[in-house]
Amino acid sequence: MNEYLFPIKIALFTFPIAAFFLSLPFLIIQYRKYGYVNKYRAFILYSLLLYAMSAYYLVILPLPANVNNCTTREALTHYMQLRPFTFISDTLKETRVVWSEPASFMHLFKERAFLQALFNIFLTIPAGVYLRYYFRKGLGATLLFSLGLSLFFELTQLTGLYGIYQCPYRLFDVDDLMLNTLGGIIGYWITPILAAFLPKTENLDKDVELDKMTVGFIRRGIAYIFDNIIIGIATSILSMIVSASSAVVLQTTEIGSLEKSFINAFSFVIVIMIYFMVIPTVTGGRTLGKWITRIHVIADRREGELQEITFMDLVKRYALLYYGVYGLFSLMAWVANYGELPAYADVALLLVRAVFVFVLGAYFVIQLFRGNKILFYERVSGTRNVITLKEEMEDHQGTSS
Q1: Residue 397 half-sphere exposure toward CB, CA atoms < 13 A
Q2: Which helix (H) or strand (E) holds 393?
Q3: Confidence check: pLDDT of 367 > 50
Q4: 84 preceded by cis ω (within 30°)?
């Protein structure tokens, strides 16, 4: 039993790591496809990930101690069992069951060949359940997928984990293909019984009103990451262009660090204006990050009235954030680096910067627990993020084309 428990333990240990790295693409796909993240759908898909990892580890673990695992150079067919139903003859050879005495049938659960066959069936039962319940696949598709999944497992073993090991370390067994496929079909058959106790997947998005949902900070944070990658790249490119142009005009081969800081600041101001103010005016309040996460900025002219964002709305919103808050912090950093202040002034400035960061951090934490998720620069500018509806996406695409 420990040979089965060990891979499952490894799967439980590594699952959080895999879930962490897959969370970003998962969230983006959910935002793009559904407009929001349904918690029950997320539970199903993450449980599918845990099952897939457990099944994979059960197939490949334990690994050989050495990649040079060949004892002799034998043909690949030596590692293949191609006679169907061999597990039945193996079970009959090992069994202590007396067929006329039903009580002796319990001996089957202590015999290797029978347990191995049972394991291969149970390995793919969850796959059949997921395919019918969540993906709503038919019997034919479930059969083909279960066979394909089993073939993937067997080839993984036959190739020595895709060539990492010189020789296969487990047998390619045609019985495993049949039993795994049977497991998937059994999972398909029992799904209606399980589904009777679970929500219907076709109703997961029923009665969901995207236009009334609040855009959360995780979603905004993902958009912020993508936007600031673009901002960083664009600012660097513009800085290099301006620096090179300045060097030509001034007929010098090197720009001083002070001049570089001014050029970087100038480039940042220009890029912010173009990316956050000019472009979203044309794209209906969307940046690349907002498009990826399916949100856009709108203006609240009056209570309950939503209107298309204008250039001046965007100037108020982003000038306050990037030129105001971020600009003030950058100015303090610039003074600390180039101001040649006395020691007490440096300490005082450092203290002010620390208080500045603390206040912003505390404010953000407080806003996390508030319902409307509206930050100060949004409140002042009368703007906010909303989820982009399918109709709005289609309208915008039609306008662009």
Answers
A1: 8
A2: helix 390-400
A3: yes
A4: no
Question: Would strands 305-307 and 295-302 be described as parallel, antiparallel, or unpaired?
Answer: antiparallel
**pTM of the complete model:** 0.84
What is the distance between the alpha carbons of residues 238 and 247, in angstroms, rounded to a whole number? 14
Q: What angle do CA 393, 400, 37 make, to 5 degrees?
A: 20
Report which of residues 353 and 106 the model is more confident about: 353
Contact of 288 with 372, CB cutoff 8 Å: no
**pLDDT of 304 strictly over 80:** no
Which uninterrupted H or E stretch holds 187? helix 174-195
Q: Please state, in angstroms and rounded to a whole number, the distance separating the CA atoms of residues 361 and 366.
A: 9
| Residue 88 CB neighbour total at 10 angstroms | 13
Q: Helix, strand, coil % (nearest 5) of the chain?
A: 70, 5, 25
| Selection from 15, 45, 33 nearest residue 293 by Cα | 33
Angle, vertex CA 334, rays to CA 332 and CA 337, nearest 5: 110
- Per-residue confidence (pLDDT) for residue 400, from 0 to 100: 52
Share of the chain above pLDDT 70, in %: 92
The pair of structure tokens assigned to 385 is: 């993020």
Q: What is the pLDDT of residue 55?
A: 95
Position of tokens 């590594």?
14
**Token pair recorded at residue 139:** 């019997």
Does residue 397 carry a pLDDT above 70? no
Kindly compute the dihedral angle of the four CA atoms of residues 144, 149, 155, 161, in this order, to the nearest 10 degrees.
Answer: 160
Residue type, 234: A
Beta strands in 98-183 (DSSP E): 172-173
Per the structure block, which two tokens stand in for 206? 């029923």
Tokens of 379: 């409140």
- d(C-alpha 47, C-alpha 50), whole Å: 5
Beta carbons of 102 and 112 less than 8 angstroms apart: no
Asked if 389 and 210 touch (Cβ cutoff 8 Å), the reply is yes
